[in-house]
Amino acid sequence: MIKRRIQSKPILGTLGACLILLAATAGQTTKGGRESLAPIDPQRVQDQDLMTWNDYRPIPGRNWADPALKPERGFRLAVVAIDFPNQPFVITLPKGSDPFGNPQIEPIPRENVSRFYADFFMKPSEVNHGQTINGYWMEQSRGKFGITEVEVFGPYRMPKPIWAYGLNEYGQNDQTPDGSKAAGRMEQDCDAVWTAALGKDVRKNYDAILRLYASYDETGVWQEFGEMKFNAKDDIPQEWGNPNPNNPRWIPTRYVEWTSWLAGSQQWGLSSMRQGENSGTITHELGHFAFRLPDLNNNPYIQPYRRVAAGPWDMMDRGSFNGPGGPHKRWVVPPAQGAAMPAGLMVRNRLENGFITESQLLRLNRDGLAKSGPAVTDVTARAVDPLPGTFAGVLVRLDGPEPGDRTAPDDPAVNPLSPGTPNYNSYSLEVVQRIGYDSFTPDNGVLIAKNKDSLRGRNGGPNAFNSYIWVIDAHPEDINTIDYVKPNGQKVMRTIADYRQLNDALFHAGLDSGSQYEWEDAANRLHFYIIDARKNEKGILSYTLAVRSLDGSGPQKRSVALEAQAELKAASLNIPVTFTLKNTGQAAETDPAAHFAGAGAYLNSDVYRLSVTVEGKGWTARLLNALAAVEFGKSRTITVYASYEAASSLVAKVTLRAVSESDPTKAATATVSVSK
After folding, report:
1. What is residue 557's three-state secondary structure?
2. What is the dihedral of CA 102, 185, 244, 218, to 10 degrees?
3. 3-class secondary structure, 45
4. Is 555 contained in some domain?
5. Three-class DSSP category at 163
6. What are the Cα distances from residue 236, in Å, to 128, 218, 262?
7. What is the DSSP secondary structure assignment for residue 265, as one 8-state letter?
8. Is the predicted pLDDT of residue 1 greater than 80, yes or no?
9. Which of 56, 239, 356, 515 is the most exposed place for a label (fewest CB within 10 A)?
10. How far is residue 395's CA from residue 24's CA, in Å, rounded to a whole number?
């Protein structure tokens, strides 16, 4: 099992193997007769392969795909449809009749193809399950950005067969059926045909041009119709091979040695608005064209392996593949599975795009935390605007003397989990809830990440890639999940660099969640806490989060008191025993320059670590949460659950202990007598 070997590490949590058991047994009766208690925030990871459209959960009271909604900034898009002498549009063929098993719906006449795909991407319908590219951007931007004008052109017939364009990359150029050399991209010929048909060049009239071409993006078929379909390259039958029988039936491809010629002869996406009929990543490409966001994705198949940056949690990484059926359903036409529901954008990208403002974040400084003591605040799920009194996230600048990021360098060639060059500038915390476009993320919880100020810059070492966001993985161990099964029954595991290794990356509140409830970065002198989780009356998720410095606790006086309820008579098998936890410390003025404007109101609490013991034969006591945050002068109730066995003693003593995280010399205990 491969483990992370960097200084930052998760602590005091339980590992994910127990999460299925916890979810299955919550609220059930154990063999001893006790009713088990559900964790307050259980980790429930759902794999992409198992998702269906039934997993979609709308945002309460909002339908961002409604065409009647007008964005603040409109975007003009041209959709130009093209096919080839040897390749009609897949969508015009009888249902399920092409070699790839498409189309999935009844055929569309060729003359209607341009309009069909423009409507599929832009207008809610039964075919696209009510989800559109415009709806994605409207949801992420809260109405600031959307597709307001779409004009369709074509279809037009290209002058060359599709393989003349599709064989132009990754060492495929000499694998043409006629012995010619494939070269160049199809945009030039497409635009020439389009301009000739119109008698003028209208490209400047649009913010972006979607060149929608007949057949497939190689990125969505190379694996499914290569190494997943055939045991070896020599097993590829002629119908999947080069039309010239004298040529090999296999062909090189981007990530691995081979795929079938038919799959490899398709055009790769290559960060452009040139898309095949199976492509669901047009939303991702608009991230490039409309906002100049760069890719975050790695190569998950080549050794030495390098861990993914943001994985399923951001649309500019492999979160662009989110959708029903997971990444191995990206071959479907029309593209209503696989990449049909990309993930939302993380704090770093939302700030870059202007979708959130700095005022919506609690902004802190690392050195400032040493002077001010811990900060505690509430953060709302990113799919909606922050609830009253909460933030969209927390941002902690790694300020102070250089280097800002003090993580010890390690060798990515040896450690596949290495973030590479330690040149990050901040930490961010945000909340993910599986609603809206985040419905197809694999979990609810808290997302912790390191971020760079620059959007561009490779992370060093072999197989380096751009990683301006680096998600902290609550479960850095190998997720140990099958990727696919070959025709001969051989099981192929997901590599340690597969983006789905981050499916279980989120942090959760409370004990026994199956995840971690805190994160300590000793090198950068920061400690993060997931204090509590709650939902409001509409089901919107928010968390109480805290962060403190390892180098100072501020000018406040730290103190704590515990009061116990009176002696208690058991009335059930899980007896709630209550204590009152009070922050008896004293607030103090903090330097307003320690943090960004508005942070002072969130520096008036302490974080306490709780533990419980019980004296009495056959008795047990359980806390559901090991953390509590309390403002100075205020108190809160802590509940401990006591249970007993049939042969237990008549009386037990339950003792709760609370210790200040800011000053561990400040502690309090209280005891309650409980009788049967």
Report:
1. strand
2. -40
3. coil
4. no
5. helix
6. 34, 17, 10
7. T
8. no
9. 239
10. 36
Q: Name the one residue in this structure whose structure tokens are 């870059």.
A: 352
Q: What is the DSSP string of 109-142?
A: -GGGHHHHHHHHHHS--TTTTT--HHHHHHHHHT
pLDDT in tens, 287-346: 999 999 999 999 999 999 999 999 999 999 999 999 999 999 999 999 999 999 999 999
Tell me how far apart the alpha carbons of residues 562 and 559 are, in angstroms, rounded to a whole number.
Answer: 11
SS3 labels along 595-643: CCCCHHHHCCEEEEEEEEEEECCCEEEEECCCEEEEECCCEEEEEEEEE
List phi, psi (to 5°) of 286.
-65, -25
- Output the 3-class SS for 290-326: HHCCCCCCCCCCCCCCCCCCCHHHCCCCHHHHCCCCC
CB 429 within 8 A of CB 379: yes
Contacts with 601 (C-beta within 8 Å, 6 or more apart), sequence order: none
Radius of gyration of the chain (CA): 28
**Distance between CA atoms of residues 432 and 430, nearest Å:** 7
* Residues 6 or more apart in contact with residue 489 via CB below 8 angstroms: none
The answer on 100 and 130 residing in a single domain is yes
CB atoms within 10 A of CB 342: 30
Confidence of residue 392 (pLDDT cuts 50, 70, 90): very high
pLDDT tens by residue, 624-645: 999 999 999 999 999 999 999 8
- Which residue segment(s) compose the domain that 430 sits in? 9-47+349-549
Amino acid letter, residue 296: L
Task: For residue 27, give Cα distances in angstroms to 40, 572, 578, 676.
Answer: 12, 14, 20, 22
Q: Are residues 328 and 466 in the same domain?
A: no
User: Into how many domains does the chain fold?
Assistant: 3
CB within 8 Å of 162: residues ≥ 6 apart: 84, 86, 87, 213, 214, 215, 265, 266, 267
Q: How far apart are CA 253 and CA 266, in angstroms?
A: 11
**Cα–Cα distance, 251 to 390 (Å, whole number):** 54
Pseudo-torsion of CA 568, 570, 575, 577, nearest 10°?
A: 0
CATH number of the domain where residue 651 is located: 2.60.40.2310
Instruction: Give the tens place of pLDDT for each residue, 122-137.
Output: 999 999 999 999 999 9
CB neighbourhood size of 99 (10 A): 11
How is residue 406 written in tokens?
Answer: 């003090």
Of the three residues 549, 578, 612, the one that is the final residue of a domain is 549
Q: Which of 519, 549, 579 is the last residue of a domain?
A: 549
Q: What are the structure tokens assigned to 610, written together?
A: 């709780």
